[in-house]
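Input.
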Amino acid sequence: MSLKSDIDKIKSSIKFYEEFLKTVSEEAFVKNPAQGIWSYSEVYSHILSANHMSLIALEKCLNKTTEIKARKPHWKVRLILFFGRFPPGKFKAPAQIAATVKKISIEEASNLIIKFKKKLDTLLTDFKKFDPKYKVKHPRLGFLDAKSWLRFIFIHTKHHQKQITRISKMLHQ
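Output.
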């Protein structure tokens, strides 16, 4: 779980989202495959919004403008971070996150990806200031330091790639 490894994995996962945008029409992008199932557009809205909020949390940790917490995350959270994946099954986004999900266009998604990548690159130079005592609370995982937030971004982004694949299968039946 090195910093460079996590950064490379995030960039690879984001590349998946960039490339996928080139393969889908605007009509298919906003189409819900079934009642109560997110469209590609809503998945992109969610993942990019959550990633943006995660980068803000990460930035607060690096700038030491947040709480100091000495305690380690719960053992279940440490397992998620260590293995780089969520436990099997589907999970609902926390209410405050789900409320931000909306349908966006392919162009908006592309612009949000560009914005995310720029912000990520900017913050990477700040990791020399990393101090594991500075943490920001995640809605489900508890207090995370900057490196844990970076790891979460990778895990969460990769997790939703599976959702894109499921939507694809549903739309092409």
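The first strand starts at residue 67 and ends at 68.
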